[in-house]
């Protein structure tokens, strides 16, 4: 903010000097013409005057160049601050805000929208400062020379800013539409690239091609709409400027030739100042159009900053909210809990309610406690809310009402980084990044690890036999999304990450579904070893996983119906007994 204020002060000083140079240049040129063409002096007698005029023109050029440089520096600072704030927020944002929206949209805003904000700082701000300083200076000088011309300029000048406001309102709406279309196009394009194999398998590639084309044409139309406004704006500004200068010139001609009440030097001096006056206003109008377009981009940046503002961020991590001048502010959210988390944790659901959206699926639980170091299973029919409950327990979703209490402290009060440092969450489809096998495993540690540590974690996860079979062992590139690894190998890689991390709370979302019996047994042995010193919560279908759990949470239609051991639920809950019976008959036990 301080740097931007300095830039604005520098704009004002340079604009004042530039205005003085314009007036002085016009005065010298009028004097030279007066002496040569009216008084009949020789050209050699005005050489000194012409040299001074040339020096003033050079100074004016340098001042205009300097103003542009300051604008570019201001734009670079603002863009750096905005992009840094975006990256900071995206890194430190809470999980719920991170998973909202499309990845391509966020990338487009961080790259394209921030770059489009350039013209607001490099063109709009300098031109607005010039309009505020130079036009006032020229008006004052004109009034001292010839009041009638000053009044004409004063009354015709407002037509330009009035037109600018009307066009600017339309441009801002069009700019917001343009960036919405760009974000949609970027998101659709990235989604299509990531899912290209799926699209081809299901014969939807051409349909998605048509969707990309539709999105691209929408962006094109929005851009052309802004260009149409820009061309109209330029035409109207030129028309207004031409008519205004013509009126002043006509009035000067009448005073000079008809009434003979005005000296040639004065009339010519004013006639030189008038185009300068309206040229500054015209340039401001053009910059105003660019500035309003940039404001649409800045609004998208601010919206993404607001959307990614962390809900569980620590005070240290709550710096990074951007403002329209590209600076960074500190978030106003409350402080996170700084206490050391006692692990393995005890967890209590205190009448938790959650709903994704109005009139959509909802979840509710009674008050229920999960003990330290217990093996918890979440069971229920498909769509009963098992994964949603797991996300609430993990802190990936925030309850609409009620609290998830960890060691009797609301989870929302814990520092997110400290909480996730103690938690491992293994899904059915763990994400494998483009990189080596070793790098993908080392992600789990959150610190620098040795190759020996990676190999030990790999062995504990039952993945040790895979690395030697790969072409370059642990340095083999496994590909984005785990290309080159089977489903079971990806799951074991995720377990290796957990062994490296040694978490105190382990969350599994049906990690063995779809795996062959041999791979499943390897995973189950590794999971049992990993869970010896941790609280483990598993979304489970298999009967042998359920029946050995210390506590089973039975879900039905979004409600936590009951909890207890396997035998207890068989006696109390007919629905649970029926589910178990179906599994036994289906051979899933």
UniProtKB/TrEMBL annotation:
NCBIfam families: CydD (TIGR02857). The lineage of its organism: Bacteria, Bacillati, Bacillota, Bacilli, Bacillales. GO terms for molecular function: ABC-type transporter activity; ATP binding; ATP hydrolysis activity; cysteine-type peptidase activity. This is Thiol reductant ABC exporter subunit CydD. InterPro entries: AAA+_ATPase, ABC1_TM_dom, ABC1_TM_sf, ABC_transporter-like_ATP-bd, ABC_transporter-like_CS, ABC_transptr_CydD, P-loop_NTPase, Type_1_exporter. The chain crosses the membrane at residues 46-65, 128-145, 151-169, 235-256. The gene is cydD. SUPFAM superfamilies: ABC transporter transmembrane region, P-loop containing nucleoside triphosphate hydrolases. Keywords: ATP-binding, Cell membrane, Hydrolase, Membrane, Nucleotide-binding, Protease, Signal, Thiol protease, Transmembrane, Transmembrane helix, Transport. GO terms for cellular component: plasma membrane. It is found in: Cell membrane. Gene3D superfamilies: ABC transporter type 1, transmembrane domain (1.20.1560.10), P-loop containing nucleotide triphosphate hydrolases (3.40.50.300). Residues 347-582 form the ABC transporter domain.
């Amino acid at each position: 903010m301080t740097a931007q204020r300095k830039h604005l002060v520098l704009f004002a000083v340079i604009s004042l000097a530039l205005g003085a140079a314009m007036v002085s240049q016009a005065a010298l040129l009028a004097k030279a013409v007066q002496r040569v063409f009216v008084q009949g002096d020789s050209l050699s007698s005005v050489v000194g005057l012409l040299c001074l005029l040339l020096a003033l023109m050079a100074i004016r050029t340098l001042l205009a160049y300097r103003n542009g440089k300051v604008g570019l520096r201001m734009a670079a600072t603002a863009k750096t601050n905005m992009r840094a704030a975006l990256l900071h927020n995206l890194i430190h944002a809470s999980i719920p805000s991170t998973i909202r929206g499309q990845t391509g949209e966020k990338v487009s805003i961080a790259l394209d929208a921030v770059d489009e904000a350039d013209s607001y700082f490099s063109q709009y701000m300098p031109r607005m400062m010039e309009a505020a300083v130079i036009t006032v200076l020229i008006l004052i000088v004109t009034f001292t020379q010839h009041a009638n011309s000053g009044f004409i300029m004063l009354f015709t000048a407002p037509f330009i800013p009035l037109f600018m406001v009307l066009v600017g309102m339309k441009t801002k709406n069009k700019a917001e539409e343009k960036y919405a279309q760009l974000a949609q196009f970027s998101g659709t394009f990235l989604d299509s690239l990531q899912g290209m194999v799926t699209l081809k398998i299901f014969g939807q590639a051409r349909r998605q091609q048509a969707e990309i084309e539709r999105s691209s044409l929408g962006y094109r139309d929005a851009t052309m709409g802004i260009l149409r406004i820009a061309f109209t704006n330029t035409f109207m500004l030129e028309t207004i400027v031409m008519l205004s200068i013509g009126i002043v010139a006509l009035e000067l001609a009448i005073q000079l030739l008809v009434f003979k009440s005005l000296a040639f030097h004065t009339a010519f001096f004013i006639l030189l100042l008038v185009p300068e006056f309206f040229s500054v206003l015209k340039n401001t109008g053009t910059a105003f159009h660019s500035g309003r377009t940039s404001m649409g981009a800045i609004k998208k940046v601010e919206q993404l900053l607001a959307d990614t503002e962390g809900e569980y961020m620590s005070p240290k991590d709550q710096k990074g909210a951007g403002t329209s001048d590209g600076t960074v502010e500190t978030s106003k959210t409350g402080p996170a809990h700084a206490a050391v988390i006692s692990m393995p944790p005890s967890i209590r659901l205190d009448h938790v309610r959650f709903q994704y959206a109005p009139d959509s699926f909802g979840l509710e639980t009674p008050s229920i406690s999960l003990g330290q170091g217990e093996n918890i299973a979440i069971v229920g029919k498909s769509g009963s809310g098992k994964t949603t409950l797991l996300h609430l327990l993990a802190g990936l979703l925030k309850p609409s009402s009620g609290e998830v209490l960890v060691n009797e402290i609301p989870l929302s009060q814990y520092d997110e980084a400290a909480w996730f440092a103690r938690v491992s969450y293994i899904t059915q489809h763990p994400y494998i990044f483009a990189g080596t096998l070793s790098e993908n495993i080392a992600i789990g540690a959150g610190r620098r690890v040795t190759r020996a540590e990676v190999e030990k974690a790999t062995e504990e996860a039952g993945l040790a036999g895979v690395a030697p079979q790969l072409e370059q062992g642990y340095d083999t590139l496994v590909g984005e999304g785990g290309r080159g690894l089977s489903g079971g190998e990806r799951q074991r890689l995720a377990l290796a990450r957990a062994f490296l991390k040694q978490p105190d709370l382990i969350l599994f979302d049906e990690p063995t579904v779809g795996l062959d019996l041999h791979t499943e047994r390897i995973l189950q042995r590794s999971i049992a070893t990993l869970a010896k010193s941790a609280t483990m919560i598993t979304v489970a279908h298999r009967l042998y996983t359920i029946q050995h759990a210390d506590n089973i949470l039975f879900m039905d239609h979004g409600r936590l119906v009951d909890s207890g051991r396997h035998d207890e639920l068989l006696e109390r809950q007919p629905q649970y007994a029926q589910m178990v019976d179906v599994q036994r008959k289906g051979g899933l036990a």
